[in-house]
Design brief:
Elements: E1 3-12, H1 16-26, E2 31-37, E3 42-49, E4 52-59, H2 65-73, E5 76-84, H3 87-96, E6 107-108, E7 114-118, E8 128-132
Parallel strand pairs: 1-4, 5-8
Antiparallel strand pairs: 1-5, 2-3, 3-4, 6-7, 7-8
The chain binds zinc ion (ZN).
Length: about 140
């Protein structure tokens, strides 16, 4: 696999609006996009930090993946996303190495990226997302 950089860090929050305030007023970052990803039952807010983004995630449904995460663990870092090229091949490659995949084939994530998640059981406890931006 050829990882070019950390694409983003996903952070689960209780309240998107309050959290944006923290990142803007205390950390001095600028939210450049708010997007709802219906399929994942989340509202997201993005910040750029160098070439890495922060993705804040607020659930729109208690039963959604972020809703369940918050209920179990509370707010905090949810996942780490690496930028790769040739996502389909990469998924095949890691599956062949015994890594458990959450997404067997790429799907559409926020910002029009192709994404797929690896199971934290196979990644030393870190929910790992691989993404490919085919628009660049
Ligand atoms: Zn993500």
């Amino acid at each position: 696999m050829n990882i070019s950089h950390i694409e983003h860090i996903g952070i689960a929050v209780n309240n998107l609006e309050e959290s944006i305030k923290y990142y803007e007023e205390i950390l001095g970052l600028k939210c450049y996009s708010i997007e709802e990803v219906k399929e994942q039952k989340v509202k997201t807010a993005f910040f750029m930090v160098g070439q890495t983004k922060l993705e804040l995630l607020e659930t729109t449904d208690k039963e959604g993946p972020i809703g369940k995460f918050i209920e179990k663990k509370g707010e905090g870092i949810h996942h780490l996303a690496f930028a790769v090229k040739g996502l389909e091949n990469v998924l095949q490659e890691v599956a062949n190495k015994g890594v458990q995949l959450i997404d067997k084939t790429p799907r559409k994530g926020a910002e029009g990226l192709d994404i797929a998640f690896l199971h934290p059981k196979s990644t030393k406890g870190v929910l790992t997302e691989l993404c490919e931006n085919k628009n660049i």
